[in-house]
Task: inverse folding
């Protein structure tokens, strides 16, 4: 019997997707490695390149991708000089995890778990209990935080083991649900300016014989979304970040290690029909789709019951040259959300029936239902090096 003729290019092979280094070199492995070095029970030093330190500070800079940092030595001379220190002196980056997006990455950092275990596997995902899309960054609609993410954070476990744990961030984030499920434990200290945060983070490090401190800067990411990583505004924010890191590094107390990392990188996507495919204007892609989740470069697609296979086939035919397009089970088996055996039962139905991750510099926007997101210059979410690779720069005292 003759085989059917594929009348268009073959879709991207799922095996060609660069899956994050869960268990050896992802954001989820960072805090457990640091806590293990302080003797916190149950923690594993998964990033073997890192030497233990009695006092560790993680400075997470939202949106500072490895590739973007390497491309801007003039704007970030201090950070650039630290590139060789990354990942224990190997000069290598970490991987963020999939999707490479803030809510997912911060939950991975704080819980020490991959997305398929902590349960924040995207920007927006379906809540199986209600059938509605849940925005996990803004926490809309309201969902009980501890029911959505019940695992303890590394900060909570460290504090229980006698480690001095603290988070130093903007006061805006103190009581957000995302902070509660991802970064709670120890003491939260809110400070408005970056300089105040750096000074206080150094002081908190010195406050204990064993200390685990986290601090955060969001403005670089905001500049990238609004103006792009090729903009003067973004470069100006990178210059600010460079000065803040140096300010903190110069105040480290003895026996300390500072780790500078990020939650994702970023890709600028041109504003034309070739690079921005509009789901809301595409009858083929929308056929059989009940809900569109995720974001432009990492989509969770929820099909009308019974239409799952048809939606998968259509999405592969329409997008398969530019996106890795997988069924839920294929994405799980490929390790996109962490080790397949570690996918939590409560998380399974939050994942799309179809999951699409961009390889090329393209977006699947939704101009009517997501007008703000569709207007962003800089975007992220997928598994490309520009989005996935993040620094792990190190300064020791």
Result:
């Amino acid at each position: 019997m003759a085989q059917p003729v594929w009348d268009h290019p073959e879709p991207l092979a799922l095996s060609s997707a660069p899956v994050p280094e869960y268990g050896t070199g992802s954001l989820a492995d960072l805090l457990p490695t640091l806590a293990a070095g302080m003797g916190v029970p149950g923690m594993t030093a998964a990033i073997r390149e890192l030497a233990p330190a009695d006092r560790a500070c993680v400075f997470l800079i939202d949106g500072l991708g490895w590739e973007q940092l390497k491309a801007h030595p003039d704007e970030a001379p201090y950070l650039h000089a630290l590139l060789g220190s990354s990942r224990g002196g190997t000069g290598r980056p970490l991987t963020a995890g999939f999707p490479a997006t803030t809510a997912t990455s911060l939950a991975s950092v704080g819980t020490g778990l991959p997305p398929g275990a902590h349960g924040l596997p995207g920007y927006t995902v379906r809540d199986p209990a209600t059938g509605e899309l849940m925005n996990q960054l803004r926490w809309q609609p309201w969902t009980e935080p501890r029911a959505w993410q019940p695992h303890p954070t590394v900060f909570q476990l460290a504090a229980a083991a006698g480690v001095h744990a603290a988070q130093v961030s903007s006061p805006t984030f103190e009581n957000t649900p995302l902070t509660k499920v991802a970064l709670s434990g120890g003491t939260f200290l809110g400070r408005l300016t970056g300089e105040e945060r750096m000074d206080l983070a150094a002081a908190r490090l010195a406050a204990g014989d064993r200390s685990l401190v986290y601090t955060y800067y969001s403005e670089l990411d905001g500049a990238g979304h609004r103006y792009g990583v090729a903009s003067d505004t973004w470069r100006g924010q990178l210059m600010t970040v460079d000065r803040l890191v140096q300010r903190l590094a110069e105040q480290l107390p003895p026996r300390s290690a500072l780790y500078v990392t990020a939650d994702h990188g970023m890709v600028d996507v041109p504003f034309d029909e070739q690079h921005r495919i509009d789901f809301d204007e595409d009858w083929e892609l929308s056929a059989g789709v009940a809900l569109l989740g995720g974001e432009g470069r990492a989509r969770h697609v929820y099909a009308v019951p019974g239409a799952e296979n048809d939606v998968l086939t259509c999405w592969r035919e329409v997008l398969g040259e530019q996106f890795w397009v997988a069924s839920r089970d294929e994405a799980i088996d490929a390790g996109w959300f962490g080790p397949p055996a570690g996918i939590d039962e409560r998380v399974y139905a939050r994942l799309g029936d179809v999951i699409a991750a961009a390889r090329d510099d393209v977006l699947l926007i939704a101009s009517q239902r997501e007008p703000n997101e569709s207007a962003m210059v800089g975007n992220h979410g997928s598994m490309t090096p520009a989005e996935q690779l993040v620094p792990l720069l190190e300064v020791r005292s």
